[in-house]
């Protein structure tokens, strides 16, 4: 997607602080953190919504969640972390490339 900011970050056309990368996902720091640790995990394949999942993307998402869990200690999240996937306008999704917010590094308040 030519006009997708996360695709540009994945291609290295826009700078970002990358913390993990493999052939199918990238994890980088959110530019406007709302917690002490605020990372974004994106699949390298562009799609925007969970409703676009197919068997191959479902498997990718499963591997991605396991990878986040495996990396949690290395990412400074041993005390716990929260994953958020905003879907659609009213949930506040501003970037139309599926992304998992990874929040942690402190005690997180619960809210909407
Ligand atoms: P959403 O609101 O779509 O769930 O989350 C988008 C997130 O991307 C926001 O938390 C926002 O701060 C982050 N973001 C937007 N543009 C950039 C960027 O250019 N670089 C980085 N690192 N994060 C971005
Ligand atoms: Zn994209």
Output the keywords.
five-stranded antiparallel beta sheet, 112 residues, binds guanosine-5'-monophosphate, single chain, alpha+beta, binds zinc ion, 2 helices
Secondary structure: elements and pairs:
Blueprint: H1 5-11, E1 18-21, E2 25-29, E3 37-43, H2 55-71, E4 81-84, E5 100-104
Antiparallel strand pairs: 1-2, 2-3, 3-5, 4-5
Bound molecules: guanosine-5'-monophosphate and zinc ion.
Guanosine-5'-monophosphate binds at residues 5, 14, 16, 28-32, 40, 86, 92-95.
Descriptive overview:
The chain has helices at residues 5-11, 55-71; strands at residues 18-21, 25-29, 37-43, 81-84, 100-104. The relative contact order is 0.22. The longest helix is centred in the middle third of the chain and has 17 residues, at 55-71. It has a 5-stranded antiparallel β-sheet, with helices on one face. A hairpin with a 7-residue loop joins strand 2 and strand 3. The chain is α+β, with helices and mostly antiparallel strands. The chain has 2 helices and 5 strands. Helix content is 21%, strand content 22%. The chain is globular and about 35 Å long. The N and C termini lie far apart (31 Å).
Question: What would a concise description of this structure say?
Answer:
The protein has 112 residues and is of the alpha+beta class.
Number of helices: 2
Alpha-carbon distance between the two ends: 31 Å
* Overall pLDDT level: 97
Quickly give the structural class.
Answer: alpha+beta
Uncertain spans: none
Which ligands are bound? guanosine-5'-monophosphate, zinc ion
Strand content: 15-25%
Number of strands: 5
List the strand order in the largest sheet.
1-2-3-5-4
Can you give the helix content as a percent range? 10-25%
């Amino acid at each position: 997607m030519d006009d997708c900011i996360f695709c540009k970050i994945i291609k290295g056309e826009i700078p970002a602080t990358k913390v993990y990368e493999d052939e199918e996902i990238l994890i980088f720091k959110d530019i406007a953190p709302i917690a002490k640790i605020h990372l974004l995990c994106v699949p390298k394949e562009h799609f925007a919504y969970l409703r676009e999942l197919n068997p191959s993307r479902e498997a990718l998402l499963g591997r991605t969640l396991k990878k986040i869990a495996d990396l949690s200690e290395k990412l400074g999240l041993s005390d716990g972390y929260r994953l958020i996937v905003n879907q659609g306008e009213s949930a506040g999704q501003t970037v139309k490339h599926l992304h998992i917010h990874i929040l942690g590094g402190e005690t997180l308040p619960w809210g909407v």
